[in-house]
Amino acid sequence: MAIRVLFPSSQPQPQPHLQPSRSSTTTRRSSRQRRGFCCFCSSTSSGGGDEVSSSSSMMTVSITGATGFIGRRLVDKLLSEDHKVCVLTRSTSKNKASSVFPASRYPGVTIADKEGDWERCIRDSTGVVNLAGMPISTRWSPEVKSEILQSRVNVTSKVRSYSTLLVLHLHHMSVVDHINTSSNGNGPSVFVSATAVGYYGTSETDSFDESSPSGNDYLAHVCREWEGRARQVKQEHVRLVLIRIGVVLGKDGGALAKMIPLFMMFAGGPLGTGTQWFSWIHLDDLVDLIYESLRNPAYTGIINGTAPNPVRLSELCDRLGQVVGRPSWLPVPGLAIKALLGEGATVVLDGQKVLPAKATQLGFSYRYPYVRDALKAIAKQL
Q: Which residues belong to any copy of the NAD-dependent epimerase/dehydratase domain (predicted)?
C-alpha cells in the first residue's frame, strides 16, 4: 500500500463501515488518475512509518487464497473502494483464477502465477494478505496432516520481505521471503496473515482471548508454526497483523454451505453433543476486519477474527432452523462423525469460546454481533 502514515490518537477510534459517498468516490478516482498506485490510509499522523491513511488514496493489494470463500469477498470489497488487486496463484490454478476473476468483469485484478510475477506484484503492492491453506474438514491421514501444515507454513514463508497490503495464494516460494527481499522501502508496509482460533486448543469451560496461551493438540501446533513463519517478516519495515479466524458464516462457503442443504431437506441438527462452543464471524465482518487491518496503523499483532458473542453449536442449529423454517431435530452422533473423519472430527466435535478482546478495544464495529442477525441476513440471500 512514498507514503505518509497517519496514526489515531492514543485512544483508537472505531472506523465506520459505510459505503463511500459520491464525492469521496470521485475524489478517489481523480486521485488514481493523478498518482497511479498509492496506499490507503487513515486521517491523522504521529510519525514512524510509511503507511498511507487517506480515504482519497488507493491501495494495491496482492492476495494468496483470493479464489477462496473469504478471498473472493475481499477482492470485491477492495475493488468497490477503487483499489487494485493482484491475485497470487499457482500455475496449475491459473485457469480457476481466470474463471473466478474474468478480465472483462474484473479489470482491476492482475493474476500472477509465475515466480517473477509474484515478485513484481509484491514489490509494487502497498500490502499483503495471506489467506492460503488446505481445508481441514477432512480425514487426517499422515499425508493429509503434513499437507495441512505445509500448505500454510510454506506459503506464508514466501511473504517475508515486502510491505503494506498483500493477499497471497499458495506458491513454491514463500510470501514472507518475497516481502523480505524488497525490504528497502519499495515493497508493502503491512502484511495481514490468516491463522485460526485452533491456536487455543479446545475447551467447553474456558474462554480465550489474544493473551491466552496456545493449546497442545495438532491444530494448535499447526497454528503456532503458521504464525511463526509470518513473524519472520522484517517487522522494522512491515506492520504485521495475525488474524485468528473462527468459523466464517456465509451462504457460499464455510460451515453453512454444508449445513443449509441438510436443514432444507429436514435433516438438520447439531453434530455430536451440541454443547461444544462455536466461535463464529459473519463473512462481511471478517472482510471488514481484514480491510481495516490493512489501512489502520492501530491494528497490529494478534487479533481474534470472531464475533463478540460465541454460542454453543446447539444454539446455532436452533437459530438456523428458525431462519430457514426447518426443525433442528436430527443430531449426528459423534461416533458417526469420528468414523467418517477420524482424528479430523475434532474440527466439528470440539470447540472453544474465543472472544475478540483486541478488536473490541480498537473499536471495531460489527455488522452482526449476534448469530441470530447474521443467520437472518444470510437466509435472505438464499
A: 62-298
